[in-house]
């Protein structure tokens, strides 16, 4: 089955981030989006540990150990970027000042419920971080994740079985197989990996899908 690479997924997410947007990139896969934002497009990247104006990852050897994102990865700071207190950062997140957040997920439900902080397994380490604040505070929530778990289970489900991060908060889902919009009618297929049929996509998805409209 053909799949989008992680860089292709990141580039696809980046293409949907508009000029002038204030954006938080979650820990893990979403951080790759920073490396694919067009240089000519002004986007303000926010990190919950107190940064605004992050740039792409530094070149090897140019890392600054004092300049990291919330996932403790080295980052760069663009001209005009700023450092500030953690409390101020969370005030930005909770106050509706972010246009978009891009989060990873363990599960996303058909109605947009998000579970991304705990699997409920006895040996799992819960790590909510700022995900709940972002899920309810950002104007749009994009989820970027693999379509299936390592065991082949769908991460897109009819109803989440893991503890929720946010209720009906996800607007769009980007996976290695498809781009899906969360709509009142259900999950609408916006794009699919090259060569993948709708029937093949539905077979590996744990919730009903709506076919793409003709011409899309």
UniProtKB/TrEMBL annotation:
The keyword Flavoprotein does not apply. The keyword Membrane does not apply. Keywords: Transferase. Signal peptide: none annotated. It comes from the Bacteria. Belongs to the 3-oxoacid CoA-transferase subunit B family. NCBIfam families: pcaJ_scoB_fam. This is 3-oxoacid CoA-transferase subunit B. It comes from Duganella lactea.
